[in-house]
Amino acid sequence: MKLKAGIKAPDFTAKDQDGNDVSLKQLLGKKVILFFYPQDNTPTCTVEACNLRDNYQALVRRGFLVYGISPDKEKKHQNFIAKYNLNYPLLTDPDLVVHNLYGTWGEKMLFGRKYMGTLRTTFIIDEKGKILKIIDKVESKRHTAQILEALA
């Protein structure tokens, strides 16, 4: 089933960069920005992560917690956070469990070659765990603005 705005977001549990379990269930009562991105330390992912870092307070003022999620493991996330001074947690999904729940693992194309990878997607989730908006055409350089526009 393809996820859409207005339905309950699938519950999940994933490890953050420090090995702590984070579940959507434990985040009930809080608004969440959950952004799926392909890989730490790649140019487009770095631009997206830094855009959210630089505009983090605008999201916090709106009452949101921000979580990035990729197939990368904890150590790689720790290095990415330290290198770019990221001010929000990154979740690991090396077995693609959460990606499959959210429909963010699929066929992509680069230079005419098809391959499987993370479909860059952001889910805006309300306090009750319901999906408010889905951004599936993420513009990395202005991702925070896209989120705020989606909420307007």
Order of helices and strands: EEEHHEHEHEEEEH
**In terms of per-residue confidence, which ranges show pLDDT below 50 for 5 or more consecutive residues?**
none
Number of helices: 5
Q: How helical, in percent, are the residues?
A: 25-40%
Q: Can you identify the CATH superfamily?
A: Glutaredoxin
Looking at the overall shape, the CATH architecture is: 3-Layer(aba) Sandwich
Task: Give the overall average pLDDT.
Answer: 94
Our Rg estimate from Cα atoms comes to: 14 Å
Q: Structural class, from secondary structure content?
A: alpha/beta
- Strand order, sheet with most strands: 5-4-3-8-9
- The CATH topology corresponds to Glutaredoxin
How many distinct folded domains? 1
- Highest-level CATH class: Alpha Beta
Strand content: 25-35%
Query: What's the total count of β strands?
Result: 9
Largest sheet: 5 strands, mixed
Shape assignment: globular
Distance between the termini: 27 Å
